[in-house]
What does this fold into?
Amino acid sequence: MATDANTSQLNDFVFPSWINKIIILGLACGGLFGGYAATVGFFATHPKVINVGHMPEQPIPFSHALHAGKLKLDCRYCHNTVEKAAHAAIPPSATCGNCHGGKDRVKPGATLAAVHLKSEKLAPLRESLETDTPVNWLRVHELPGFVYFNHSAHVTRGVSCVECHGRIDKMEVVYQAKELSMKWCLDCHRNPDEAIRPFDQVTNLGWNPDKEELKTIYMEELEKAFEKLAPQVSVDANPVPSERKSERRLFFYPDGEDRPEFTASKWRDTKTHQDNFAKLIFGDPKLADENSDNEISLQEAVAFLDTKSDYTRKDLGQLLRATHKINPNQSCSTCHR
Ligand code: HEC
Ligand code: HEC
Ligand code: HEC
Ligand code: HEC
Ligand code: HEC
It folds into this structure.
């Protein structure tokens, strides 16, 4: 990012060396220490991290409410590394130039090339394009240097920008909406269900499905999970053809039998495995008992799910977590490397 040097707010913060020892100690003691540190709130939080409301004045009055909200530009049009890299790139002036750069800068096929060409507000952009120097955007969010954060690890796992940045698509000027404290990170890592959404809705900040939509999405995701299982379901050398996919059966195999889906090692024991699966997928452990033969067909699952009327974000999040194996780490080395 081009803006680091002059705006880093935390240059004055020196990480005391004793903390390194604590981190090493923490690594050695693993979860025990983690639980203690986090529940007791043992560590003071640096005030500049809890900078909720921090809203520096930018060199160009760029409005997300206009560009991401009204014009509906996808976040990834500008922050195009957000799915691939740790950092979400701030766009170079050339990206703005696609619409504000004038004829010389128009990419073949671009239609919006000459929006507000004479605008005073855009003078720094024109200068940047002419002199080939970046616009001096100021950082809004910034973690201390000893914290490792990674955008792609979140946005490719169904965590939306809105969980951490708020409704950017409604902001005239970007400000920090959340605390970004260690406790805040860990609260979600411990209990992420409600923060997980279908992967294609991650940049749709206003996503707010009602119960019916949630149910539809839930069923679709469940079908996808069964689809993924299809090759393993044809275990009996009698593959079920796709027209009869509702007859496909989902087998609960204990580990070691080469059935990678739904057989994470912590579900090793078949009984626990079933209970966990039923809880995660169906929200009802009783179902597992009724299926003591270790299998549930899609038909049975759908019949059961049809009787369930209240679909919540949490239900969907649990399903997505189970079917995509999403389990955020809480060990110190996840964020302090
Ligand atoms: C999910 C990410 C995450 C995990 C896991 C995590 N931390 Fe942190 N930690 C942070 C963040 C973010 C900060 C900076 C914000 C703050 O000061 O609260 C931080 C700050 C700290 C600080 C400095 C506190 C200060 O005064 O600024 C220490 C020390 C620390 N962590 C130790 C640990 C130890 C020990 C563990 C394991 C038990 C751990 N962390 C696990 C994210 C994490
Ligand atoms: C047309 C390009 C464009 C689009 C589209 C866009 N952004 Fe931005 N974004 C920028 C620019 C330029 C900045 C730096 C200036 C500022 O902070 O307003 C920025 C800054 C940010 C920041 C603050 C970065 C920091 O310094 O901490 C966040 C967070 C952010 N954008 C999120 C989003 C999200 C979420 C979306 C989609 C809803 C989005 N952006 C869409 C151009 C864009
Ligand atoms: C896809 C086209 C598109 C891109 C890319 C784009 N803009 Fe815009 N921008 C517009 C449109 C359209 C308007 C005018 C909306 C209106 O006036 O109703 C606008 C308006 C503006 C304005 C207000 C100008 C004024 O005088 O009122 C500013 C400032 C601005 N954009 C900055 C930027 C910056 C900075 C970037 C790059 C980070 C950028 N825009 C990228 C389409 C774009
Ligand atoms: C799990 C929380 C989380 C999610 C989800 C998230 N961000 Fe961020 N974002 C952060 C944190 C924390 C920082 C500060 C990173 C740092 O200082 O290293 C940040 C920084 C940024 C920045 C400044 C550049 C950078 O990488 O430091 C931009 C731009 C940004 N985010 C855009 C987005 C967009 C767009 C999305 C959704 C596609 C998104 N973020 C999703 C937490 C998140
Ligand atoms: C709203 C929920 C949420 C918040 C807030 C959040 N995370 Fe995460 N984090 C996740 C999820 C979900 C994953 C993906 C876990 C997986 O792939 O199994 C993840 C993954 C990660 C990873 C990749 C390593 C891993 O666990 O697999 C890092 C590093 C990380 N988070 C750091 C942070 C830091 C640092 C913060 C705070 C600044 C933070 N996270 C805040 C939900 C969150």
The chain has two domains: 4-92+134-204, 211-324. Residues 211-324 form one domain. The pocket of heme C (ligand 4) is lined by residues 1, 75, 79, 82, 87-88, 90, 141-143, 149, 151, 154-155, 159, 161, 163-165, 180, 202-203 (CB under 6 Å). DSSP finds 16 helices and two strands in the chain.
